[in-house]
Amino acid sequence: MPSRSDDPVAAALERAATLIEHDVRALAAANPVVLIDGRSGAGKSSLAARLAARWPVEGRVQLIALDSIYPGWDGLDAGVDRALDGILRPHGRGYLGTWQRWDWAEQTEAENHAVDPSLGVIVEGSGLLTPATARLGDVRVWVESAEPGRKARALARDGETYRPHWDRWAEQEQRHVERDDPQALATRVVEVP
């Protein structure tokens, strides 16, 4: 097994986390909002976890994955709308936000979670960078990665539960890319092999 220094994906994510950490520091804000978008398997969750572990602002950061919010396999747009209405708009106005977890096993809504407007927040997920969300993100990241690597990582992560849904999810991502041009909305684009 290669060491982390020999792993090009891990090295790319470390470089990206360092750059984004500098972006957050440069804001000089007490409660910055970082949005991380990219197609499935690109490395969004791993990048968000690395950034959260080295969060450069006093106090904890709230890390929210849209995978916990999407209402099922056809819910990419609905999940982004839920994040916009429940997390980003309230946070931007200084109000307590809430989001409801989607229980994938039961295919139903689950418990609610609060979002403290006084703390920074990292939201990551496919479909996240839209014209509406971009207005509310201080640092907006697009993670670019070619399909073969993304698909291999996503299926290794989620196994056979994801395989039958890959194409239908990829179609939703493609519609998002064509409609919203998330790379153009990003303040930072990172490449992951």
Write the layout of secondary structure elements.
Layout: H1 8-27, E1 33-38, H2 44-53, E2 61-65, H3 76-93, E3 97-103, E4 108-115, E5 120-124, H4 131-134, E6 139-144, H5 147-158, H6 166-180, H7 182-185, E7 188-191
Parallel strand pairs: 1-5, 1-6, 2-5, 6-7
Antiparallel strand pairs: 3-4
Offer a few descriptive terms:
193 residues; globular; Rossmann fold; five-stranded parallel beta sheet; alpha/beta
Summarize this entry quickly:
The protein is an alpha/beta fold and 193 residues long. It has seven helices and seven strands; from the N terminus they run H-E-H-E-H-E-E-E-H-E-H-H-H-E. Strand 3 (97-103) and strand 4 (108-115) form a beta hairpin.
Provide the CATH top-level class. Answer: Alpha Beta
CATH architecture: 3-Layer(aba) Sandwich
Low-confidence stretches: none
Sheet with most strands: strand arrangement: 2-5-1-6-7
- Gross geometry: globular
The CATH H-level superfamily is P-loop containing nucleotide triphosphate hydrolases
User: Averaged pLDDT, please?
Assistant: 95
Estimated share of beta-strand residues: 15-25%
State the helicity in percent bands: 40-55%
Instruction: Count up the domains.
Output: 1
Remind me, CATH topology? Rossmann fold
Cα end-to-end separation: 18 Å
Which sequence of SSEs, written as H and E, runs from N to C? HEHEHEEEHEHHHE
Please give the number of β-strands: 7
Class by helix and strand content?
alpha/beta
* Largest beta-sheet details: 5 strands, parallel
User: What's the tally of helices?
Assistant: 7
The quaternary organization reads as: single chain
Rounded to the nearest angstrom, the radius of gyration is 16 Å
